[in-house]
């Protein structure tokens, strides 16, 4: 059988979640908002605009559109600064092994990310060629947990939701996969991603047997 394997980017393929965190933390501290790692979980998988709204909400801050636009630009500039020199060594452990196994087995691979910076990152870390389809923040209007991003990815691969498997590190992303009716695989803490169908701490825990089972069932 051929299945659609859909990967989130930030925190799944590369460890850019830390860069998003640092860039948001700078904005938050400018505004006098205490922004913890726990708060940051709420932002994972969430669009840039929505992330700012959540942060402002934490500080009970109402801002003009002009200020919001300014902070959104600043956040992305800081983020771009962090990712400019990204190389292959920032691909998370075990990811390449999984991508290679899927490719060698003729499986279909897509990216399903909320980030508008997804393509340049895939290029920087030199794994663009593994992907048969890419859906990112430039292609969708509804952010996760809306399933739009994953449904589009599956459609581009010519597969149904039942034939699709999603790898995600965010609560919003797991919910999106579940709502779409896809198999959700949580990458990260099981207690945070408790809505996922399967849980792993990282890709080194995912073996060929497991992948083969996903293909066969
Ligand atoms: C991913 C990350 C989020 C980020 C979003 C938008 O989903 O997990 O933290 O806010 O992408 O990314 P962007 O690069 O477009 O700001
Ligand atoms: Mg993510």
Automatic annotation (TrEMBL):
<keyword id="KW-0413">Isomerase</keyword>
<feature type="binding site">
    <location>
        <position position="24"/>
    </location>
    <ligand>
        <name>substrate</name>
    </ligand>
</feature>
<feature type="binding site">
    <location>
        <position position="8"/>
    </location>
    <ligand>
        <name>Mg(2+)</name>
    </ligand>
</feature>
<dbReference type="InterPro" id="IPR006439">
    <property type="entry name" value="HAD-SF_hydro_IA"/>
</dbReference>
<dbReference type="InterPro" id="IPR010972">
    <property type="entry name" value="Beta-PGM"/>
</dbReference>
<feature type="binding site">
    <location>
        <begin position="43"/>
        <end position="48"/>
    </location>
    <ligand>
        <name>substrate</name>
    </ligand>
</feature>
<dbReference type="GO" id="GO:0000287">
    <property type="term" value="F:magnesium ion binding"/>
</dbReference>
<feature type="binding site">
    <location>
        <position position="168"/>
    </location>
    <ligand>
        <name>Mg(2+)</name>
    </ligand>
</feature>
<dbReference type="Pfam" id="PF00702">
    <property type="entry name" value="Hydrolase"/>
</dbReference>
<dbReference type="InterPro" id="IPR036412">
    <property type="entry name" value="HAD-like_sf"/>
</dbReference>
<feature type="binding site">
    <location>
        <position position="144"/>
    </location>
    <ligand>
        <name>substrate</name>
    </ligand>
</feature>
<feature type="site" description="Important for catalytic activity and assists the phosphoryl transfer reaction to Asp8 by balancing charge and orienting the reacting groups">
    <location>
        <position position="144"/>
    </location>
</feature>
<keyword id="KW-0479">Metal-binding</keyword>
<feature type="binding site">
    <location>
        <position position="169"/>
    </location>
    <ligand>
        <name>Mg(2+)</name>
    </ligand>
</feature>
<dbReference type="InterPro" id="IPR023214">
    <property type="entry name" value="HAD_sf"/>
</dbReference>
<dbReference type="InterPro" id="IPR051600">
    <property type="entry name" value="Beta-PGM-like"/>
</dbReference>
<comment type="similarity">
    <text>Belongs to the HAD-like hydrolase superfamily. CbbY/CbbZ/Gph/YieH family.</text>
</comment>
<protein>
    <recommendedName>
        <fullName>Beta-phosphoglucomutase</fullName>
        <ecNumber>5.4.2.6</ecNumber>
    </recommendedName>
</protein>
<feature type="binding site">
    <location>
        <position position="75"/>
    </location>
    <ligand>
        <name>substrate</name>
    </ligand>
</feature>
<feature type="binding site">
    <location>
        <begin position="113"/>
        <end position="117"/>
    </location>
    <ligand>
        <name>substrate</name>
    </ligand>
</feature>
<keyword id="KW-0597">Phosphoprotein</keyword>
<feature type="binding site">
    <location>
        <position position="10"/>
    </location>
    <ligand>
        <name>Mg(2+)</name>
    </ligand>
</feature>
<dbReference type="GO" id="GO:0005975">
    <property type="term" value="P:carbohydrate metabolic process"/>
</dbReference>
<keyword id="KW-0119">Carbohydrate metabolism</keyword>
<feature type="active site" description="Nucleophile">
    <location>
        <position position="8"/>
    </location>
</feature>
<dbReference type="GO" id="GO:0008801">
    <property type="term" value="F:beta-phosphoglucomutase activity"/>
</dbReference>
<dbReference type="InterPro" id="IPR023198">
    <property type="entry name" value="PGP-like_dom2"/>
</dbReference>
<feature type="active site" description="Proton donor/acceptor">
    <location>
        <position position="10"/>
    </location>
</feature>
<feature type="binding site">
    <location>
        <position position="51"/>
    </location>
    <ligand>
        <name>substrate</name>
    </ligand>
</feature>
<dbReference type="InterPro" id="IPR010976">
    <property type="entry name" value="B-phosphoglucomutase_hydrolase"/>
</dbReference>
<feature type="binding site">
    <location>
        <begin position="8"/>
        <end position="10"/>
    </location>
    <ligand>
        <name>substrate</name>
    </ligand>
</feature>
<feature type="site" description="Important for catalytic activity and assists the phosphoryl transfer reaction to Asp8 by balancing charge and orienting the reacting groups">
    <location>
        <position position="113"/>
    </location>
</feature>
<keyword id="KW-0460">Magnesium</keyword>
